[in-house]
Amino acid sequence: MGIVSGILEGRSSLANPDQWLVDVLSGGNEFGWLNNWLSGGSKSAAGKVVTVPAALRNIAVYACIRVIAEDLATLPLQMFERLAEGKGVAQDHPLYPVLHDRANPEMTSVTFLETLMGHVLGWGNGFAWIARDNAGRVRELWPLRPDRVRIRRKDGKLIYAFSPDVGGEMLVPFDETFHLPGLGFDGIQGYSPIALAREAVGIGLAAEEYAGKLWSNDARPSVVLKHPGTLSDKAYDNLVKSWSEKYGGSGNAHKPAILEENMTLEAIGIPPEDAQFLETRKFQVTEIARLYRVPPHMIGDLERATFSNIEHQGLQYTMHTLRPWARRLEATVALRLLTPQERGKYFAEFNLDALHRGDMKSRYEAYHIARNDGWINGDEIRAKENMNPMPGDKGKVYIVPLNMMELGSSPEEAGASRQRALERRSKSPAYRRRLRQAYRGLYADAAKRILFRQRSDVIREAKRILGQRSDTDLMVWLDEYYHDTELLTRHLAPVNLAYAEAIHSAAIEEVGDVDKVFGASYQSFVDEYSQGRANKYALDARQRNQAAVSRAIEAETDILEALEADFDEMEETWPDHVAGRETVQLGGAIARFAFIAAGFGATWAALGSHPCPWCEMMDGMSVSGDETFLDAGGALEAGEESFEPSGNICHPPLHDG
Q1: Does residue 628 contact residue 616 with C-beta atoms inside 8 Å?
Q2: Is residue 613 scored above 50 in pLDDT?
Q3: Would 2 be classed as within a structural domain?
Q4: Residue 625 and residue 556 share a domain
Q5: Is residue 584 part of a domain?
């Protein structure tokens, strides 16, 4: 009756059997014996004893725990102070450096949170000892092994019994313990996910062990040796030993077998139940991912992943997996680390904005709407994109469309406001140049993302193709790969749209016709421009890669090294090239589009103190309607050198550089 009476006397009675069952399953009794026993490990139906350390040998379990623990630990966790309006970072609060920088003299805050989350995701509970100074302020947090902590209740208060390595037991009071529980039904302790899912984990461990044994035999089917006569026991044992030593194991794979005494060999095929164990392993990966609510692609299972669903799965992971854990931690910080007086003034908060962000196009469209509606400024947008503020105070200005007025404003007041806004933009060419500088970073970032993906795809496929086929097949694959421009348009088009809208607004205000709206022709213009530039950059990349392969073949050097060197060079130069080219090219194209649409002409302006001779010749040239600054086939002569454009020059730039 010892254990049972402890349960009944501690928290429940037979008069309430439902609550008794909840207490038993949740480990909510005095010593939490059942949950602790489950966490310590029990044998699954697959025959494997499942403990947390054993479960971590399953790659899917380890990957899920690592993904969640790393993602949450690397998110900024800061202390904030509630202000009369909004909030402010409380860097002077003693908890700020503990949560944001260093949890204790031996651990960064990242390491501490990663360890704590690893404990919770394995054992269901994370514990830490709170070290306070003489004034009661938190100075350090030290993680405790959850399998060595037992929760007790003494005089109606919770205490924590910790068993250190040296033996004995240390009682830690409630206000000196940081306890982060996972899901549980008593509000005190959390269930161990490993214990509750021990069958799924056990099957995964058993499948891995089976795979190891299969490969130890070179993943080959068993064979039958047939002897025409009858072997004595000694001859049988000698034959088995000799065959195992010479042909057993993967190290002896594919050695020719020499048979004597008219023996014959017959192979036995893999039975269906053995051939299906690979499917079992795949299913168990999905099961473990389901247990931790982690999208399978985040732990390397890309079988069902597509370009269209990965990004949305990532957003769902942020909202439905990381956000609940972040909220648990924030609430636990308030309960365990702040005094009752401080809770009304201070709070801890994770910054989930970086993970909540959508794709580039969606973000920039949202920024454009917020910026035009006047409730966010340029520097706030740049901060969300992890960029430095604009030079001076230009980025701190809030703007609204000029044809809007406050409710109740008179036409005269609206007209005066409109005139002031026009005066602020009276130097629109300079403003457009500032926009060009502001968007360089966004273009460079998009180019870096494109290069990263291209490099990954090309090197991976080059290894596969060259290992199985020929360099000619690699050339064909490069043609097919760069024929698809979806990668380029996906990263460049959103930046083009946001930049074009900003330039268009500035150009329209420059001519004073603020009632112009973006029509279908404008959208079509930007779409066609984006596709054209994507085609151009894809062609350049294909020719560049194929040239690197051709040089390696001619010089009889390693093709993969040649491709790696080519991408190294492009990473140094291409992002800046794209940023410089696109900010000038698209900026000129959209400004001209706006001017012509408003019935105005356009004048070429050469910038810089020392423009090249050709740009000096273009300076001051004006066009109207569909006129071009320089026709294809025309030429600019500067001394003995001439410039001949390959196409019509309708807007800047005249040339690269």
Answers
A1: no
A2: yes
A3: no
A4: no
A5: yes
Label the pairing between strands 125-132 and 177-181. antiparallel
Among residues 322, 356, 390, the one where a domain terminates is 356
Q: Which residues contact 305 (CB under 8 A, 6 or more apart)?
A: 296, 297, 313
- Mean pLDDT is lowest, of 160-169, 239-248, 355-364, 604-613, for 355-364
CA atoms within 13 A on the CB side of 78: 12
Structural domains of the chain, count: 3
User: 648 and 508: one domain?
Assistant: no
**Token digits for 640?**
């003995």
- For tokens 């356009």, the residue is 602
**Confidence check: pLDDT of 561 > 70:** yes
| Domain enclosing residue 627, as ranges | 602-657
Q: Is residue 440 packed enough to be buried (19+ CB in 10 Å), middle (13-18) or exposed (0-12)?
A: middle
Answer whether residue 408 shows pLDDT above 80.
Answer: no
Q: Which of 107, 92, 283 is nearest to 204 (CA)?
A: 283
Asked if 130 and 174 sit in the same domain, the reply is yes
Question: Is residue 511 located within the same domain as residue 657?
Answer: no
**Are 108 and 198 part of one and the same domain?**
yes
Residues 333, 451: one domain? no
Can you state the angle between helices 17-26 and 33-40, rounded to 10 degrees?
A: 40
10 Å Cβ neighbour count for 118? 22
What is the identity of the amino acid at 558?
A: D
Tokens 């044994």 belong to residue: 213
Buried b (16+ CB within 10 A) or exposed e, 27-44: bbbebbebbbebbebeeb
Angle at CA of residue 53, ends 49 and 54, nearest 5°: 35
